[in-house]
Amino acid sequence: MGDSSNSTGRSNWSGGTGRTCYCGSIVRMFTSKTPTNPGRRFLRCGGTHGQRCSFFEWVDHEVAIIPGLLQRMKHVEEENMRLSASLLEIRESLKSLVSNLNIIKTCAIICLLITAWFMVFKQM
Questions:
Q1: Are residues 48 and 97 in the same domain?
Q2: Which of 45, 63, 81 is a domain's end point?
Q3: Chain-centre distance of CA 8, in angstroms?
Q4: Blockwise average pLDDT, block size 10, the chain, 124 residues
Q5: How many alpha carbons fall within 13 Å on the CB side of residue 4?
Q6: What local confidence, expressed as pLDDT, does residue 80 receive?
Q7: Which end of the chain is more exposed for a tag (fewer CB within 10 A), N or C?
Q8: What is the DSSP string of 93-124?
Q9: Rounded to an integer, what distance in angstroms lies between the CA atom of residue 78 and that of residue 25?
Q10: Residues 50 and 96 placed together within one structural domain of the fold
Q11: Residues 53 and 23 placed together within one structural domain of the fold
Q12: In a shared domain, residues 105 and 75
């Protein structure tokens, strides 16, 4: 179960219920947008911020699948971070290999030029 302070800060108003709360204000229904209770509906005092009482009640029961999905999402995010780090290492290795290949190409060209130079002087 979540608490009202986290849920009310990230919710959408979806109308009155006809009920009244502790202070006599009309109870309003909201939908939680928190990561721990996404889409879960709740009731709270419909008074203004300065005149709102502490009334809070969940409309929807806690869904057992949500904690499991949150855990899976955490594992996927961890795997994503690990794969991002691996990709960074691979990119750095590729840069090094390309640099080495360019050095080898340069050396091969120099060898060909030296060989051609010796062949020209051999014919003289």
A1: no
A2: 63
A3: 22
A4: 42 61 90 87 86 91 78 94 98 97 97 93 81
A5: 13
A6: 98
A7: C
A8: HHHHHHHHHHHHHHHHHHHHHHHHHHHHHHH-
A9: 45
A10: no
A11: yes
A12: yes
- From 37, 96, 102, select the one nearest 69 (Cα to Cα): 37
Full residue range of the structural domain in which residue 34 is found: 4-63
Residues 57 and 71 in one domain: no
For 37, half-sphere exposure in the C-beta direction (CA atoms, 13 angstrom radius) is 22
Residue 22, SS3? coil
Residue 80 structure tokens: 């994503």
pLDDT for position 19: 86
Could you list the beta-strand ranges (E) of the chain.
Answer: 11-20, 26-32, 41-45, 56-58
pLDDT at site 8: 43
What the block records as the tokens of 113 is 């030029």
Give pLDDT, residue 59.
Answer: 93
- C-alpha 65/C-alpha 100 separation (Å) is 52
Query: What is the C-alpha separation between 107 and 103, in angstroms, rounded?
Result: 6
Pairing of strands 26-32, 41-45: antiparallel
**pTM value surpassing 0.90:** no
- pLDDT value, residue 1: 42
